[in-house]
Amino acid sequence: MRCLLRIGTTTARNKPPSPDESFAAQTRSLERSYLQSEDPTVQSGFSGGRKRWVAERSPIVNAIHRDGDFLDVGCANGLLAEDLVIWAAEAGFALTPHGIDMGAGLVDLARQRLPAHRQNFHVADAWGWDPKRKWTFVYSLLELSPQERWCDWLHRLSTWVKPEGRLIIGSYGANSRGVQPTDVTNVMENCGLQTLGSSDGGDPLNTRFAWSAS
Prior knowledge:
Blueprint: H1 21-35, H2 40-43, H3 49-57, E1 68-73, H4 79-90, E2 95-101, H5 104-113, E3 121-123, E4 135-141, H6 150-158, E5 161-172, H7 184-190, E6 195-201, E7 207-213
Parallel strand pairs: 1-2, 1-4, 2-3, 4-5
Antiparallel strand pairs: 5-7, 6-7
């Protein structure tokens, strides 16, 4: 699954080249397919049903170590942010959900799903987005960037993390296509980010997550 945004830095001086237009166009096209379904998991780009969704997404909560704000970069319909608030509460932590996505229809669904936090969800292209703030936890996927830009993407996201917060990165596989999730820990460390932990989900394995400190 790839959510709807592009990546980069925010100033003309240090902004690396944006991903090529074919990658961006493919990303933008996903909103139409997501919105064709009434199933919340499908609207999040997942077709395996609720049981598998929980098994493959809930390991993200292992990265949560304190109360705070949680930003989902590429939030789709807000289902993951909603679930993480619940899963974190079960682990004893209070999260305030936030999210951005390029798909206006998906962000509207996220605002409907989390009406008490609707002001925290924004239609935004991360390539040019300047949030003017930081979050305790910032979560996103490697697959939201072309592979050759992974280090740019990780370092971009790391600038949005508060002191003593965590950058959490995931990779999703596709069992039906025989695609394995990427070893996120290896990628993060090769990009110069020291990881604090990792987790995975699915049977067979279909998701990997790793996190680093700010």
